Structure formats: structure tokens, C-alpha cells
Amino acid sequence: MTTQQTLTEPAIFARATSCDCRAPHEKLTIAQARRGTPVDRPVRVYADGIFDLFHSGHARALMQAKNLFPNTYLIVGVCSDELTHKYKGFTVMTEHERYEALRHCRYVDEVLRDAPWTLTPEFLEKHKIDFVAHDDIPYSSAGSEDVYKHIKEAGMFVPTQRTEGISTSDIITRIVRDYDVYARRNLQRGYTAKELNVSYINEKVRTVEEKSKHFVYRVEEKSHDLIQKWEEKSREFIGNFLELFGPDGTWKQVFQERSGRMLSYALSPRESPCNSPPRELSPLRSPSPPSPPTRWHNARPSPPTSPKGASASISSMSEGDEDEK
User: Which among 33, 77, 89, 299 could disulfide-bond with 48, CB atoms 3.0 to 4.6 Å apart, if both were Cys?
Assistant: First the structure.
């Protein structure tokens, strides 16, 4: 298959009985393969896998395998559903879907269906495989610590690098983690609950949605009622406040009346009543002794300082004598 055919047509399927390679097939070393080989003698590289949910990590690994040598013919082995379910687990895609996904990868020259789980010398010889490409992490499976151990020991193993952050397990983990999101997504796109096997869950989800909507509606209704009542109460409160403390409010009238009374009391205080009880002396203060009566008849007049004064005192004394008579 030419380069132009590889880019415009899907890769061919490998024959189950024999290899299509017609050129003499001498064993090559890695050094010889890297120096280059004749056009009619490409280096046949084999890469196998499950390739479930074919993604960019798979494509990059195959790209590395295709570019290991200047003249590479890449054969990709894809394990069947039976082997995969037995040794690794269930797949999302069927084997036929996985075969077709590999056929349309630009780096693949040939797809080998129902690939073996463990590579035997007979299998390598039948398909004229020069080297096996895979990441060099030990792959323990089918009772073996590393299914590529004997390939490595034979000098036929060429490592490739894994792409971090992307794998089939990672993709499945994302779907499982956000299961509810994707279930809703497919239900909205027309898939039935039976097709998604979520009839019970779908019913529960719908019930929760209806209850949530009813709850939100009740909360909104209550909120409107509360706001309306608050507005009524606030208007009533403001009216009462203005009625009491406004320019013509009750509080101003009361204040004016009390101010007028206080002013009238200050200008015309009330008189004490006539029948008010006599003021009693404080027990702490004793009454002062009465002063002795003045005895005018025994008193001697002071000598006059002038003749007029003498005559005046004599006349007053004579009048006093007359009164006593």
C-alpha cells in the first residue's frame, strides 16, 4: 500500500492464512532497521492492544511505532471481545467497532483481527514480524508478570511512550463520576429510560425535580406575601409616626399645652391658703428667751446736750407723770 493510499483509504485487514509480504525476509537488527532498508523490504512492526474508546493516546502510540524506522510497515493487532472480557474486563465498544476505529487511523497499514493475548514464535514467524512496539511498563496478565518478557529477551522489543492524562480508564471514570449529568443529557436528546437502563433513577429524578419546583414556588409565594405585609406595616408605622411627631402632630399639641401651663404658673403663682397650719419650730432649734420689759419710769434720762434738748426732755417727763396719775 502506497503513502497516498494510506491517507485516502482505510487500512487493509490482515489475512488469516498467510502474510502479504513477498520480499525476502531476513532477520534485522535494530541498528540495521534504523539505517534504512530497501523499499521492497520494509521493517514490519507489530503493535497490539484493546483500543477501546479509541483516543489521542492510542493514536500517539501508533504514530511513534510508525516512525521508529525510516521504512516501517505498521501492523496493529486488536484482541477480540472474548479474550478481552476474559483477561481484562468488559469493553464499551464491540470488537468490530474497535477494528474499524483502527482502520481509519492514518498511521496504520494493516489491522489484524482477533489478535492473540500472548505472542508466540509461531505467530511472529507467520506474520513476518521484525519488532514489537509497546510501552515498556511490565504488562502483567494471564498468569505472567510481563507478557512481553520473552520479546524483550529476544531483542525484538522497541518501547514507545505513554501519553499522560488520557486513557480509556480515565474516560470511563469521567463518565461514571458525572453519571447523572450524562444520563440527563441523553434523556434530553431523545433516548428512553429503558435504553439507558435508568427507569427507576429517572422516576426518582423526576419526582425530586417536581418537589423542588413546588418548593421554590411556595418560597416565592411566601416571599411576595411577606414583602406585601411589610409594605403595609411600614406605611402604617410611618403614618403613626407622622401623626405623633409631625408638624401638626399630637406630640406638638401636648408640648404646647404643657408649655402654656408652665408659663402661666411662673407668671401668677397661687397664694397660700388662709387655713394653712402654723409653722412649727424645728426641734433642733430652741426658742430664744423673751427680752425683759422696758421700765421707762425708772430709767434715768441722759443729760441733755443742749438747752433745747433739756427743755424737751422735761416736757416729755411731765407728760408721762400726768399719764400715770
Answer: 77
